[in-house]
Amino acid sequence: QKEVEQNSGPLSVPEGAIASLNCTYSDRGSQSFFWYRQYSGKSPELIMFIYSNGDKEDGRFTAQLNKASQYVSLLIRDSQPSDSATYLCAVSSGGYNKLIFGAGTRLAVHP
Amino acid sequence: DGGITQSPKYLFRKEGQNVTLSCEQNLNHDAMYWYRQDPGQGLRLIYYSQIVNDFQKGDIAEGYSVSREKKESFPLTVTSAQKNPTAFYLCASTPQGGATGELFFGEGSRLTVL
To answer: What is the pLDDT of residues B1-42, one digit of tens each?
Structure first.
């Protein structure tokens, strides 16, 4: 059974701090990695994707991938209360756009 | 505006009844997906379709059925054989050959079995 593991949280950080969200996966053959944000009662929206080892930055978000350790993370700099949501890690498995999702980490940014 | 429309948004069903959830997209996407989300869990793939008149089972297809007669439409039927149908159902689509693999989601349908 291919798995994606995330700490369920909640991860509580003060406004302006860096939030660090982590994800591990079991399938060494996975090639594509995604972070989705999901507000309560809403559908997920893609915020970052990464294919290669290393860091990828997009505004306040940085995705980090280490395939040897089967580990992917998301850093959110200058966290805002509007960042409070559940962050889902998704990993490609077995074919184009067939994703396995983790259970998500709930992030709470407090003023 | 382009997007994915799911209906109904909320649905109540008695045990033993079949129910069909609608999913329509006007994004001209080739691939469409149905996911189920339970509280505290990630999304689990029910069925997916990469082309009209073809679809494949996902990880939890038992008790569900789909059809793909038109590119724009991918309805999901939750049958009475599904033992725990209460969940949040998400339809998604993506263009075939898209670079990022981004899934575009509808707003979801919340099904409650009474």
So the answer is: 679 999 999 999 988 899 999 999 999 999 999 999 998 888
The confidence score (pLDDT) of residue A94 equals 67
**Which chain A residues are Cβ-neighbours of B48 within 8 angstroms?**
98
Residues of A with Cβ-Cβ distance to B40 under 8 angstroms: 8, 103
Judge: A43–B101 Cβ closer than 8 Å, yes or no.
no
pLDDT score recorded for residue B100 = 59
Chain B residues touching residue A104 (CB < 8 angstroms)? 42
What sign for the dihedral angle of Cα B87, B30, A4, A109?
negative
Inter-chain CB proximity A49 and B90 less than 8 Å: no
Burial profile B45-70: b = 16 or more Cβ within 10 angstroms, e = fewer: bbbbbbeeeebeebeebeebbbebee
